[in-house]
Amino acid sequence: MRAAAGALLTALDEPSRQRARHDFDDEAARRWLEYRPLPRPGVSLADLDVTARKAAHRLLATALSPAAYAQAMAVVALEEVLDRAEGWRRGRHSGDYWVAVFGDPARDDRWAWRFEGHHLSVSMTVVADQVSPAPLFLGANPATVRYAGRPVSRPLGPEEDLARELLDALGPAGRAAAVVADEAPGDIISATRPTAPGRIDPLGMSRGRLSPTGRALLDQLVALYLDRLPPELAAREAGRLDGGELHFAWAGATRPGQRHYYRIQGDDLLIEYDNTTEDGNHAHTVLRRPASDFGADVLAAHHATAH
Fold first, then answer.
1. How far is CA 153 from each of CA 65, 82, 248, 282, rounded to the nearest angstrom?
2. DSSP alpha helix (H) spans, 128-279
3. What is the pLDDT of residue 306?
4. Which helix (H) or strand (E) holds 117?
5. Could you write out the three-class secondary structure of 159-195?
6. What pLDDT does 35 receive?
7. Mean pLDDT of 81-90
8. Torsion-angle region of residue 114: left (phi > 0), alpha (psi -120 to 50) or beta?
């Protein structure tokens, strides 16, 4: 990440570098999450030449597994699809993604970076040799594009399909505990807040009450989100959860094609998925660490050691 961020800053011309760089202690800019098409800190890829754009993508790729990077690129491409569906009125475009670097990756022990635009937000905080990898947001609008009933594009399909397998495996009694509301919320509950809620009630169904099949499917669903990260980071995040309790909650319709939502909560873990607008064809997903987002964990450890 240090090498890729340094290469990006070197590839930028001076005006772009000034827009991309921020102080690490600029909390408002650094602790930022915005998955809507709104102004944001950083420099836009649309303003960069090919060399600088590729450097930004190489930096993004350091934070994502190959599968998640493919999902991210599908999300970016959907901006053009959505713009066409809206009659080209909004001027959406696949260059409307922004990169920001906080601090100096070549010299500072503490630094961070973010790659963000509509339906994509990846924030990484680095302290010494430790990476704190959250929040990580991926969305899709339209969630599914079909031809003759067959999906042409469905970048977040695994996130829905595996959760439905888990819901089906619960059986009637398990679903009664896991389905916490008949109506899905309008969006993910953590939204764009810089601090995610430490607990969202009701918790739903605990992993300990699941059948062996249900536990295996819940573990696979958590792994799907953790595996958005490179293997070494995903393994470390899985280790943090080892032995802790998990809860799975669902809200909204249980039949495909209708508005629905689910969340998974654990020790310093919040996973949320919603498909609740555009008649259930507009999805949001996020991986958050309520106590440790934006590097709160590694920064606290650094302060304790340094002082």
1. 20, 12, 27, 13
2. 157-178, 212-226, 231-241
3. 67
4. strand 110-117
5. HHHHHHHHHHHHHHHHHHHHEEECCCCCCCCCCCCCC
6. 98
7. 97
8. beta
Name the percent of the chain lying above pLDDT 70: 98
Q: Which residues of 281-296 are buried (b: 16+ CB within 10 A; e: fewer)?
A: bbbbbbbbbbebbbbb
Buried b (16+ CB within 10 A) or exposed e, 215-233: bebbbebbebbbbbbbeeb
The secondary structure of residue 72, as a DSSP letter, is H
Residue 82's nearest CA partner among 153, 186, 30, 182 is: 153
Residue 223: both structure tokens together: 């792994």
Q: Centre a 10 Å sphere on the Cβ of residue 269 and count the other Cβ atoms it contains.
A: 24
Alpha-carbon distance 3 to 55, whole Å?
10
Give the separation between CA 8 and CA 52, rounded to whole angstroms. 6
| Placement of tokens 């070197």 in the chain | 10
